[in-house]
Amino acid sequence: MKRFKDYAAPEATPKLAPGARQTVMPWAMYAAMTEDDLGAIFAYLREQPALSNRVEPWTGK
Fold first, then answer.
1. Domain count of the chain?
2. How far apart are CA 18 and CA 37, in angstroms?
3. CA angle (7 as vertex; 14, 43 as ends), nearest 5
């Protein structure tokens, strides 16, 4: 939950240089959620079966 809450302030949104590795996780969008809501999402995701797949870097295309 701390990771999400770290992005609650607008100035906390990372500003990365063009071409730098970007994250597709919308941290700031989840930062305003309550800890109960974040905990519910976490609990749900932990119940899902793991999938085996190759993770490719996101290019934004």
1. 1
2. 33
3. 125
> How confident is the prediction for the chain on average, in pLDDT?
80
Q: Of 52, 59, 61, nearest to 23 (Cα)?
A: 59
| Residues spanned by the domain of 10 | 1-14+27-51
Q: What is the model's pTM? A: 0.58
The answer to whether position 38 is within a domain reads yes
Query: According to the model, what pLDDT value does residue 40 have?
Result: 95
The reply to whether 10 falls in a domain is yes
Residue 58 has phi, psi (to 5 degrees) of: -75, 130
For residue 3, which of 40, 28, 21, 22 has the smallest C-alpha distance?
A: 28
